[in-house]
Each structure stands twice: as C-alpha cells, then as structure tokens.
Amino acid sequence: MSALTYQTLELAVNSGGAGEYVVAVLNSPAGQARGALALPSDMSRFQQLLAALDDARLNFSAQAPSLAREAGAVLFDALFHDELRSAWDVSLRVAKDRGQGLRLQLRVNPPELALMPWELLFDEQAGAFVGLSRHTPIVRFLEVNAPSQTLTLEPPVNLLGVAASPADLETLDIDREKQRMAQALAGPIDAGLLTLTWLEPPTWPALQAALQADRWHVIHFIGHAEFNRYDGTGEMALHDAAGLAARRSAMQLAHLLGDLHSLRLIVLNACQSAAGHAAGRFSSMAGALVQRGLPAVVAMQYPVSDDAATEFSRAFYAALANFYPVDGAVAEARKAMNLAEPASVEWATPTLHLRAPDGALFQPAVEEASMNNPQSAPWWTRLPDDPGQAGGPSPGGNVSGDVIIASVGSGARNVAIGKNITQKIHAVLGPSQPDDPAAIANRFAQLYAVLAGADPARREEGAYQLRRLEEELTGLDEDEAPRSRTIMKAGDWLLENLPELGSGLGELFGLAAVGRILGRSDGEVVEWVRLRFDQ
C-alpha cells in the first residue's frame, strides 16, 4: 500500500501594528512569501455574514452552504493574494508532481483571528473548499515551548474511549457512536494493530486510575463540553458518583493528560471543545492540551449535532484503519459529514491542532516486508562483488571491475569504487517503486521531528543541511542523477554535529528507495554510505 504523505505550506499570521496583520509563508515547496492580511475593509459586514452562517448552521438552513462559500472565499482571499497566491499555486503543483498532498499549516497567532473559521477556506478559482480534500488538509499549529513529537508508533496502538452522557444534561446516543467506532476499527483490531478499551465508569477518578498505566496512545472523548465565558476557559463533563455532570476545566484536563509520555492523539468529539476566548490562545480545551506539548488534538469549535459527531467518528477511524495520516483522516471525516447532511456545514466544525511533522499514526503491516524496510539488511550488502555473481560481498569487500580511487568523507579516506555500480544496484534493487517517495518522505519527517528537540544553536544549520539532503533525494526527475558531493557534505555535517540524528540517517540511507536514487549517481557516494553506516 502506498502511504499518503504531504508537503507542508507553513503560513503564519501575526500582528503588524496599527490594527494590521502580516501573513508570511515560512516554508513551502515554492519557498517563502510575505504580504498583508487582506481582510474586508468593512469588517462589521463580514461579522454579520459569520453570524448569519452561524444561525443557518444551527437551523440546518438551505442557505448554509452558500453562506459558507461566501465566508470561506473572504478568508481564502485574505490569506492568498499576489505572491502569497503564487506560493499556494506553485506548492500545489510541486506536491502533485511528487505524488503527494499539500498540508496547509496555519499559525494564526493573534487570538482574535484564531477564533475565525479558517476550516471554511474556499478557493473560488478551483471552485472548492480546501479542507474537503484529503490532498489539502488544514491543520492549526500553536507555538509552544515544547519540541515537536512524531506520531508514528509500533503496533498495537492502544485507544482509550471515554463516553459520558450525564443524566442532567442532554442525552447523547453514545452507544451508537461506540458501535460505529468498533465497526470502523474491526480490521486493525483483528490484525493486532490496535486495541480499543472503554472507560467504566466514565468518572474523573476512574480516568485518573486508568491513565496511571501510561500505556494509552489515543484517547477519544464522547460527551459534553462547553466554553465558560465567565472565566474564559473550556470545560469537559464526565459523571459524578450519582451519574450527574461533573465538570472540569481545560487546565485540569491538561494536567491530567499532560503526564502521559505515551499519548499521541486526543479526539474531543464534544461541542465547543475547540472554542476559545479572544484574550488567550490557550483558553480552549484543545489549546490547553497543545500547550502541555501533546502532538495532535482533534476538537470541535462549535456545537455539533449528535448525528454529525457520530458520522465524524465513523469516518475518521475508518480512514485511520486504512492507514491515512491523522490530517488526511480528518479531511475524509469532513467529506463524510458533508455527504451525510448536504444542507449542513458542520463539516467545518472539527479542528486539528497538529505539532508533529508527520500525521501518520501507524504504518501498514505490509511495509515490514517491503524493500523499503531499513530494519532488513542494508541494500549495499546485497550488491555482488562481480556483475555476474549472485551473492553479496561482506562489508568493505573488494569491488571488481574497473577501479578508480576517490577520497570519501571528512577524513578523506581513499576507497575503491567500481565503475559499474549503477548496473549492480539496478540488478539487485530493480526499478523505482510507487511507494519510494512516501518511504523517503516518512524518514525525513522523523528526522525533522528529532531535529526539533536538538540544541538550538545547531538547529538552524541542521535544518539547512537536512533540506539539502531532501532536495537531492526527492526533488529529481526519474532519470536525473543526485549530486554526490552535496549528499556527502550535508551528511558529514549532520553526523558530526548532530549525532542524535545518526540512527535516523542510517534508516534513511538504508532504504532501497534511496539506493535506487544513489545508483543513478557515481560509486563514490555509495562507498560513502558504506563507510558511514555499515556498523
């Protein structure tokens, strides 16, 4: 199975002074860009439009879809105009050419702007809502003083479900949602990729006791949440001993969940769990959890109907079961919500706060047997000493055929290089495979995740050197050869200055996909890989 992977367009919105805002594309396949946030001059009319949309959404009015398109177009045009629009268009084209999607990562820092429904972004030129495609998922990024963390886990992924419908609050059909989640996850549960456990009873003491094991990777909440406008924070309701509502604040929930080292994803399928206050970026339930360093939080920014919440859970976990990354799974859930109720725009209610560089929660089991599995013997150990020889040489063995001498690595060691290395690699590894780009992209995502926690003094240069490697291994045409010297220089710097990247770089270069690319170059870089990673 070919994994769904993404390029990322990182877009930041910041205050520019005098009531103005600055938009910057920090990183994208098209490079950087900068401009002003082009909000309507008459903001009162736009606020009236949002209010009308809110009323139509709550009443399932037939006007809701057209109002959503109008509001979404205003928001899209505010972000993407002039060179910012060019960065978007070029990034989409580059990602498509590489067989990937384009993740739109929004860093909306002014709290008053973060409250806007950016999930409604509507591109009038394309005639489509951006967030309704798995190829262009929208994720929110809150800047916090915590390193990014990769999501990908070794199976099984342990999911804890917490479903609460207190007797003194509106009754929720939690049994139906639990049943549909179990159906969606039946495949990975039977395959041993995932476990699903429901908390009983759904009380705060029981939750605390369950979390002490620190074995949960995903926690899914079904229930009631609300935004308390008196104290400016979100609240979640579980049961007390009598089955009535026991509310706890966003900060209390964050303290409870923030101690779990195992936790990767929280799904708050509850009304207004992403609702916040204009005075603080971390006032919402989702914001408080992100502030504690949790890598991925799915939450609802508006009230959500029971039917929509159930449909979201079904489609979201069905996509995860098909090995979609979390952001792609949210996009699929949006589409399912839209199809289930065409007159509703509840599909824009879910938000995803993602701080991980890669949204993949777990990988298909078939990857374990693929030629792109770096856990198996490195590809270079399978290269024959002689073009007609079937076996592989021992590391450092003689290289037959015409030989030249080259200096490799920072120590300038002389090594023997076979001129027929391209034919050898092609004979052993075969032609490029459909999952090659995804395998390489996944390894780079993990390297960037480790880099995020590295020494700040070396982080910027490390990112530069990683990008140089990435460009040589991902930005080439099928018949284009990578630049050996660039690969070796970047690799040497990273290994010598950021040793914590060593194992990850070994896994990257151990991919058969990388071997096939290096086979288009000369033997010098192949011998460099052997010397550097054949431990």
Characterise the protein shown here:
This protein has 535 residues and is an alpha/beta fold. The protein has three domains: 135 residues, no CATH class; 207 residues, Rossmann fold (3-Layer(aba) Sandwich), CATH 3.40.50.1460; 164 residues, no CATH class. It has 18 helices and 17 strands. The strands form four sheets. Strands 8, 9, 10, 11, 12, 13, 14 and 15 form an eight-stranded mixed sheet that branches. A five-stranded mixed sheet has the order 3-2-1-4-7. It has a two-stranded antiparallel sheet with strand order 5-6. A hairpin with a 4-residue loop joins strand 10 and strand 11. Helix 8 packs parallel to helix 9. The longest helix is centred in the last third of the chain and has 19 residues. The protein is globular, with a radius of gyration of 25 Å.
Considering the chains and any ligands shown, give keywords for the structure.
8-stranded mixed β-sheet, globular, 535 residues, alpha/beta
Structure summarized in a few sentences:
The protein is α/β, with parallel strands linked by helices and 535 residues long. Helix content is 38%, strand content 19%. The chain folds into 3 domains: 6-140, no CATH class; 157-363, Rossmann fold; 370-533, no CATH class.
Per-chain topology:
Blueprint (H helix, E strand, L loop, with lengths): L5 E12 L2 E8 L5 E4 L6 H16 L5 H16 L3 H15 L3 E8 L2 H4 L7 E2 L4 E2 L8 E3 L16 E7 L10 H11 L1 H5 L3 E5 L5 H8 L6 E11 L4 E7 L5 E5 H8 L7 E6 L14 H7 L4 E5 L5 H16 L4 H15 L9 E5 L48 E6 L4 E6 L2 H9 L6 H16 L4 H19 L9 H14 L4 H8 L2 H7 L4 H11 L2
Parallel strand pairs: 1-4, 4-7, 8-9, 8-10, 10-13, 13-14
Antiparallel strand pairs: 1-2, 2-3, 5-6, 10-11, 11-12, 14-15, 16-17
Helix pairs in contact: 1-2, 5-10, 8-9, 10-11, 12-17, 13-14, 13-16, 14-15, 15-18
